[in-house]
Design goal:
324 residues, 19-stranded antiparallel sheet, mainly beta, 3 helices
């Protein structure tokens, strides 16, 4: 529901005593703005929202010359917010936000910080903080996230460069820079939703690094990744594998996907693989239709260089042979 008093004037109107209430079930929130000027643009010098935890205060100015957003949200209840606004996952806990940003033809100016000390979404719980600083045509982003079951994700300080008006979505689709995300996760928690843990159990951790790069505005995106396991162990009804780790890396651009992977132990490579999907078409890479080239490498090693009791439970086999 909404209540307000409108007073027309030349070029627009003024709203006084505006009150808006959102309700869903037994959850409600109230927003109020003592004055709102409409035309040209929208000016709301003070907006207060109550019912989502501690009061949220802010200011909004939307004009042809620029957009200004100021908000202070000390503690927003995510569960109450999710009852009023559809969210991808059912969330609970609290988060805070401190925003003071202006977007205009010269770029992004100001700062925004969003963080949480405890937030749950679906089956996951986490905490973290993301900071954005606008310096005109350059936007700096930095953050970290800690998910209880999986581990940490770190976003080192990143500079994103834009060459247009930040109020236009196309400007952000063309943005240049390099974004890197690093994480250290428990493999069991990561793949547990994809495998039957009554038949297969995987332990250990995986360090991942993903980098997305665009050299200049409008240029093709290049995505690269590196994954390395640590303490990898695989248990099945037939036996188990220990002492072998896996490392993989890859690069994806608009013309090709190249992936290389290696399984190795203390004595060297156990198995290597390379995969290349390349397209000669100007329309970009189509993974479903582009030619696939794969190479599997089994290095020359004597059988007694493998510890078979790590592969088949209870065995104690040593042999001398070479795979060519």
């Amino acid at each position: 529901t909404m209540k307000t008093t409108a007073r027309p004037r030349e070029g627009g109107m003024d709203l006084a005593g505006t009150r808006v209430r959102w309700s869903a079930g037994n959850v409600s929130a109230d927003a109020r703005a003592d004055t709102v000027a409409i035309g040209p643009g929208v000016h709301a010098p003070r907006v207060v929202i109550e019912g989502l935890g501690e009061p949220v205060t802010g200011r909004v100015d939307l004009t042809p010359g620029g957009w200004t957003f100021v908000a202070r949200a000390p503690a927003v209840d995510a569960e109450r917010l999710g009852a009023l606004v559809p969210l991808p996952e059912q969330a609970s806990g609290r988060f805070d936000a401190d925003v003071d940003l202006r977007l205009d033809g010269s770029g992004v100016h100001g700062k925004a910080i969003v963080g949480t000390s405890e937030l749950s979404a679906g089956a996951e719980k986490g905490r973290g903080r993301v900071t954005l600083v606008g310096r005109g045509r350059t936007v700096e982003v930095e953050g970290n996230l800690r998910v209880a079951r999986l581990g940490g994700v770190r976003l080192p300080k990143t500079e994103i460069r834009i060459d247009g008006d930040p109020r236009r979505p196309e400007t952000w689709r063309r943005a240049a820079g390099e974004v890197t995300a690093e994480s250290d996760v428990a493999i069991r928690d990561l793949v547990g939703r994809f495998v039957d843990e009554s038949k297969v159990q995987i332990v250990g951790r995986a360090h991942t690094k993903v980098r997305v790069t665009r050299e200049k505005p409008g240029a093709p995106l290049v995505t690269s990744f590196d994954v390395t396991t640590r303490g990898l162990e695989l248990y099945t009804d037939a036996g188990y594998v220990r002492g072998t780790e896996v490392a993989a890396s890859g690069v994806l651009d608009d013309k090709s996907l190249a992936v290389s992977a290696e399984a190795f132990d203390a004595r060297g490579t156990v198995l290597g693989a390379r995969l290349l999907v390349a397209s000669g078409r100007k329309g970009g890479l189509d993974l479903a239709r582009s030619p696939l080239h794969a190479t599997l490498t089994l290095p020359a090693r004597t059988l007694d260089s493998f510890t078979f009791d790590d592969i088949v439970r209870g065995s104690d086999v040593h042999a001398a042979a070479v795979f060519e």
